[in-house]
Amino acid sequence: MKKILFLTPTLPYPPVSGGVIKSNKLVEFLSTRYTLSVACFLKNEDPDFQDEFLKQITLHAFHAETLNVPRNIKNLIISNLQGIPLNLYRNKSASFDKKIRQIIHDYDIVFCDHYVMFQYIPKDFKGKIILHQHNCEYLIWLRYANIEKSIFKKLALYNQAMRIRQYETAICRAADRILAAPNDTEELVKIGAQRKKFLETYHLGDDHLLQLDSIPFEETQPILLYIGTLSWEANIDGLLWFYEQIWPLVCRQHPEIQWHIAGKHPDPRLQEMAQQDPRITLAGFVEDLEPYFRQSRVFITPLRFGSGIKVKVVNALYRGIPCVTTSIGTEGLKVNDGEEIFCKDDPQEYADAIHELLTQKEKWTTMQAKARAVAQQYYTWDYVLENVVKAIEE
User: Fold this and answer.
1) Using CA atoms, how far apart are residues 201 and 178, in angstroms rounded to an integer?
2) How far is Cα 197 from Cα 176, in angstroms, rounded to an integer?
3) Residue 25 to residue 170: CA distance in whole angstroms
């Protein structure tokens, strides 16, 4: 039985956000088929969940180290002096590196789950290296730079994007196989990665939602629902953009509208936003989302930058909550504007799409059916895990 070392930047549990959902599913699957060891950092609340994770997964070995390096100006300067991207510096540990070097040669395969962990694979490792690109990372920072108004912040973001691009090009060349979403594959090939190394993968959510009965239009209320990690800058930016540009247009037509936002660690800017309008509810982390799904008429995912498949959008497709998002939100998905989903980058068009779903039962019901059908056809875990096995067994 092949021995696999799974390198990941955080504890892959609990599965409550896009990247962790994917990592958790991979660890769960690989542990049933191979001799699997996991090496990761413990960040934020991770130590509280370590024992629960280990009870649920059978591992050959588990190596963990506490690491919490904030994203701030000081660490940005240090990372620049070292000539590496900030995210690499924030996941850099000499003691962790020493431990991995002591054990890595005992394994047939290293499964590098996220680009920041590639720094722990020594050049003399003789086994197979599988790189899991959660996103085309440099593209996220480049898009962020493009919408930033401050010239100084724009330059800093652009500098990070170029450093990450150089690093992603290098690790894609060093890896034997690369798992990435189709849109990320195209972007990585543009910067020098070999297309033949790639196998298609997706960030998916809870596909068991497909087994639940469809929600009737009559049971919903004029409520907008957003679910996501509220400390991630792409999500924060999108929500603030929606609040400033689109929310007033929606409220003008629907004074009774409510907006529920579920997610961990809301940024202070989002807390201030919610305090300014009693129609906005910051629900925090929600363990059981079904009551929120059942009462909400429209799911929104306003994103202005990002990369990869958006799990929050896929979950909306699973549950059949008609979704209004942007071109960034639909990237890599086999969906069409006005059919399975609404894709609008213009604020007025975004508000008009919400109005249509709030008021037109027939359109709402048709979109619900099409959304669940495309999710059933293309976005289940069985399909994704087949290519994981292929990457390992070839």
Assistant:
1) 9
2) 7
3) 27
* The CATH number, out of the four listed (3.40.50.2000, 3.40.1190.20, 3.20.20.150, 3.40.50.300), of the domain defined by the range 208-378: 3.40.50.2000
Q: Centre a 10 Å sphere on the Cβ of residue 127 and count the other Cβ atoms it contains.
A: 18
- Rounded to whole angstroms, the Cα distance separating 344 from 328 reads 10
pLDDT tens profile 133-145: 998 999 999 999 9
Q: Give 24's pLDDT tier (boundaries 50, 70, 90).
A: very high
Query: Cα-Cα-Cα-Cα dihedral of 16, 20, 24, 30, to 10°?
Result: 160
pTM for this predicted structure: 0.83
Section 259-263 average pLDDT: 96
Q: What is the third-level CATH fold of 3-204+380-393?
A: Rossmann fold (3.40.50)
User: In whole angstroms, how far apart are CA 240 and each of 68, 93, 235, 322?
Assistant: 27, 35, 9, 21
> Is residue 274 predicted with pLDDT exceeding 80?
yes
Return all residues near 236 (Cβ < 8 A) that are at least 6 apart: 230, 267, 269, 270
Averaged pLDDT score across all residues of the chain: 95
- CATH 3.40.50.2000: which residues of the chain? 3-204+380-393, 208-378
3-state secondary structure of 15: coil
- pLDDT of 376: 92
Tokens standing for residue 220: 């919903």
Find tokens 């999500």 and name the residue.
Answer: 235
Paired with 287 in beta bridges are: none
CA–CA distance from 271 to each of 29, 85, 105, 260, 261 (Å)? 38, 30, 48, 13, 11
Q: How far apart are the first and last CA of the chain?
A: 14
Q: What are the two backbone dihedrals, phi and then psi, of residue 311, each rounded to the nearest 5 degrees? A: -60, -35
Per the DSSP assignment, residues forming a β-bridge with 86 are: none
User: Considering the chain, what percentage of its residues have pLDDT values greater than 90?
Assistant: 86
Full 3-state SS string of 26-67: HHHHHHHHCEEEEEEEECCCHHHHHHHHHHHCCCCEEEEEEC
